[in-house]
Amino acid sequence: MTIALQKAVSDARASLKRPGESIGAATSASPRFELFNAPNSICSQKVRTVLAHHQIPYRSQHVDIFEGETYLPAYVRLRMAGCEALGGGLVNAHTGSTSVTAGGCDPAVVPLLVDWETGEVLVDSKRICFYLDKVAAKRPSLRPAGLEKQVDAQLDVVDNLPNYQMLAGKPPGVDHRPESRRKSNGVGFAMGKVERCDRYLAEFSNDADLVKAYSAKRAKELNAAEQLFTPEAMQAAYDKAEAGCASLERVLDASSSQWLLGDNITMADLYWGIELLRMKNMAVESFWANGAKPSVAAFVEKAGSIPAIRSAIVEWPGALY
Ligand SMILES: N[C@@H](CCC(=O)N[C@@H](CS)C(=O)NCC(=O)O)C(=O)O
User: What is the DSSP secondary-structure string of 153-182?
Assistant: First the structure.
């Protein structure tokens, strides 16, 4: 293990307000994995759910998104190491989804996983979920042989849904989002991030890595503020989300098995379950309720009782708004 990694991680830990905590049945005082994550972040929720499903113990570092902790210089430095390992460059525009393939690496977000056994810093929730699924080789895979293509096709649909717009922007028509979100019109939310980057850019103007990181994040959020939250863009986002649910309804209707792609839970079930819980939380149950999409409605109920989803989201403090 390099001293540099140990220092980068301990600096990042030290900059956070809350101390870390051990999750799962700890078999050692220092578990193999350490996850920087936020309770309410859907990308963090995916990783926590896969960890829970495979019963992998880990050290959880609570990164407070509301306090802007994903922008703390020590955390951003660690993140930059993960982005470099990922390759493909930094993000500079916002697609509205959280998919890294659609946008490049964001230097100021969660989740981030440290594998203390290999010395790797991993970013991007999908990549982390695949990695953990491989690590848990003794357990049945969440992407079973022969089903990878179908599983991945579903993950792509979920990963490209406009979660950021639905969380931050004003929905078309009546705003049924949780009270705490209703103040947000998206533009103010994204511009708050731009201003945060400006403050760090002024403070760390001599640090080339941080300047690169905050400039990339700034460009992404400025682009979001300018493009994503117009009434037309918000209508398109909601249409896309509803179309995603319609595609799920078709897959469920065509399947006679217990889960989406067979009689065992796959990563597709977990991703859809997490996404639908978020949509429910954003008060868009009208997509499937009252007979609109009966198979999706039944799936939402079933997914909410998957033990890994319960422990990583439903019972995780602060995970739902
Ligand atoms: N492609 C990344 C996206 C990560 C991401 O967008 N994280 C969001 C929460 S789901 C975040 O940390 N946002 C904080 C911010 O942008 O200020 C992944 O899947 O891990």
Answer: HHHHHHHTS-HHHHHHSPPSSS--S-HHHH
Q: Across the chain, what does the average pLDDT equal?
A: 93
The model's pTM: 0.95
For a ligand 1 pocket test, name from 65, 78, 98, 164 the mutation site with the most ligand atoms within 8 angstroms of its C-beta. 98
Domain with 122 in it: what CATH number?
3.40.30.10
With a Cβ cut-off of 6 Å, ligand 1 is lined by 41-43, 65, 70, 98-100, 106, 108-111, 124-125, 193
Q: How many domains does the chain have?
A: 1
Chain segment 233-271, per-residue pLDDT in tens:
999 999 999 999 999 999 999 999 999 999 999 999 999
285-304 per-position pLDDT tens digit:
889 999 999 999 999 999 99
CA 72 / ligand 1 centre spacing (Å): 14
Q: Give 11-57 as a DSSP string.
A: HHHHHSSSPPEEES--SSSS-SEEEEE-TT-HHHHHHHHHHHHTT--
Assess if residue 205 is contained within a domain: no
Tell me the DSSP string of 279-316.
Answer: HHHTT-GGGTTTTTSHHHHHHHHHHTT-HHHIIIIITS
